# Entry
Amino acid sequence: MAHAVRALWPGGLALTWRLGGRPALGLPTQSRAGLTGAAGGPGPAATTRKGGARLLGAAALALGGALGLYHTARWHLRAQNLRADLSAAQLSLSSRLQLTLYQYKTCPFCSKVRAFLDFHALPYQVVEVNPVRRAEIKFSSYRKVPILLAQEGDSLQQLNDSSVIISALKTYLVSGQPLEDIITYYPPMKAVNDQGKEVTEFCNKYWLMLDEKEAQRMYGGKEARTEEMKWRQWADDWLVHLISPNVYRTPTEALASFDYIVKEGNFGTVEGAMAKYMGAAAMYFISKRLKSRHRLQDDVREDLYEAANKWVAAVGKDRPFMGGQRPNLADLSPSWRSAMALP
# Structure
């Protein structure tokens, strides 16, 4: 995760070295006087120098291309190796699950679940929900996405809330407990938020339900477990709230964002046209309210930069990810990918 943030952050030249790349090498240029003869045309020495310069330039381009291909291939292979290491027992457990994810493609919380499933190589089907009618989830009294249906043998379980989905599935993969039992560890609870609206919260949603040996094997110590929980919650409670004020910052940016949302989402023709223009206008004004509610700076980009700097400082220089050599559940938060796609 720190790699992605550092790659997209200002000052990329120095960061390129940490990503395994190399900054472009500037070739010195020669004076025109050194390449011309007495009559203004190229002399013998100039011709030799010119030919040598061309040969040197071609060699530099070839070397640069080879280095670029090498580092691209190395980064691609490294990315493939960053998938979670699953034991034979965990692979057996994952093969028992038939997963169906109900989502909005552009929703950061849905993206979080997809990142977890992809990282752990868990196969799943996707149902894109129509944001207006939501007919695809009419079976559920819980009306938000993501919703994950997990079929394990004859048992069909519905998991709600992105953090609960991730914590429950990770607990399942590590402990092997029946998913039906695991879900009971994350009971829903009605609460009233700061705006006086009744909402559903889930207890223990950042906690993996592991015994002492399992926790030690996964984390190596209490500090790592506490750190992962802290930053998972931080991404949900703070970082995700920086996205809307940034992507809907101006009317033009709001319209461009909804153009993408409509193209990627499950909208009818009329619904899409209405959503693009009415949704962009609505979210532009809502983003201003969110900016005020969360007490963001006039330039909301500055809050985003500060959040990224805070994350990078927490990861530090001695490990590539919050989880060490491989990403942990805090690293997998897609809020970073949504936020870092901004200019």
In short: The longest strand covers residues 97-103. The chain has a mean pLDDT of 80.
